[in-house]
Structure formats: C-alpha cells, structure tokens
Design goal:
Blueprint: H1 2-21, E1 24-25, E2 28-30, E3 36-43, H2 48-57, E4 65-67, E5 70-74, E6 78-79, E7 96-106, E8 109-119, E9 123-126, E10 131-134, E11 137-138, H3 139-143, E12 144-145, E13 148-149, H4 153-170
Antiparallel strand pairs: 1-2, 2-3, 3-8, 4-5, 5-7, 6-7, 7-8, 8-11, 9-10, 12-13
Length: about 180
C-alpha cells in the first residue's frame, strides 16, 4: 500500500505537465473555445501603412481590411502541402485552405492570428440523395481529439509543415540589397 501511494505521488505531477503540453505545438494552440488557432509575433520596422500595402499585395491576405490598429478578414484560398516532398505524410495535403486572419499592430511588432481554419469543401456525389454533398473539414476535425492536439506522428508532421508555410506567408519579404554581388 505504501508503494502505491509513493508511486502515485511521484507520477501524478508528471501527468499534469504532460496534459498541458497537449494544447500547444509550435505556433498552434487550442484557445478557450477549444478551437485550434495559429499565432505568431513578428518584428518589423514597417509602419502601419506599409504593412497595409504589403498585405493587400499578397494574394492570401488581399481581403483583410484595416480597422483601427488591426487588420482582419477572410483569407483567399491557398493550397497547402502541394509542392512538398512529404505530402503523402501530410493530413489535408493538396486541399485548399481558408482561415480568418487577424493582424494586430504595435510599434515595431505585429501579431498574426489565424482562426476558423478549414480545408475547402470537397464535393462528393451522393447516390442516395441524388446530388453532391460538401465535405469541408476544419483543422479541429483533423488535428484535435478531446480538446487536445492529437498525439500522432502524422499530426506532428502536418502541423510542422503548415507552421512553416504560414510563417513563410506572414514573414515580410522586405527588399534586401546586398552590396557584394
């Protein structure tokens, strides 16, 4: 009996720590509404007007609008994982992705948040009903189980790839001039 108590006192704190880490992976996290979001803070010397010009020229972010010190709006569709060699290991590869984008601005920094992330509807012919049926799916359907990020290797591979793709989209590509060429 003493052994059982000692073992449980030793193991229980580690179980609590492991559960907390299941709600975050790279820049993905589960918010208070149990929705999977992607959020990252970037540093930039651009002004708010320059950021607005930059984001309206990018195809994925062209629909976001400036309201106060914040950009927000629905993204344009983007195909994720289509050109990657590991696409066969990626959940949702080759499907168009859509999200609601929020970009908060503070002097010298901006924070990007993607919410309502989903893959575009795939249409499937339904013989019984005699028409097509939309099979659109959210990121939660793919990557979240019981309010936690699903602990599978394919989920980690997929979220790692998507994290890099989102980071590539929102990292500002400022004109860099190299002196030696």
């Amino acid at each position: 009996m003493k052994r059982l108590i000692l073992i449980s006192l030793f193991v229980l704190p580690f179980l609590g720590i492991a559960q907390d880490s299941d709600t975050e992976f790279l820049n993905f996290k589960i918010d208070t509404n149990e929705e999977l979001i992607w959020q990252k803070v970037y540093e930039s010397n651009m002004t708010l007007e320059e950021l607005q010009q930059y984001f309206t020229n990018e195809s994925f972010t062209a629909n976001i609008k400036l309201i106060d010190d914040k950009f927000s709006g629905q993204s344009n569709g983007k195909k994720l994982g289509a050109s990657k060699t590991s696409q066969w290991k990626t959940m949702g590869a080759n499907l168009f992705f859509d999200a609601y984008i929020i970009v908060d601005f503070k002097e010298g920094r901006y924070r990007v948040t993607l919410t309502d992330m989903k893959f575009s509807a795939v249409q499937k012919y339904n013989l019984w009903m005699g028409g097509t049926q939309n099979l659109g799916t959210t990121f939660e359907d793919f990557f979240v189980r019981k309010g936690r990020i699903w602990q599978k290797k394919v989920v980690e591979n997929s979220l790692t790839l998507y994290d890099k793709e989102f980071d590539d989209v929102f990292t500002l590509k400022e004109n860099i001039i190299k002196e030696d060429w």
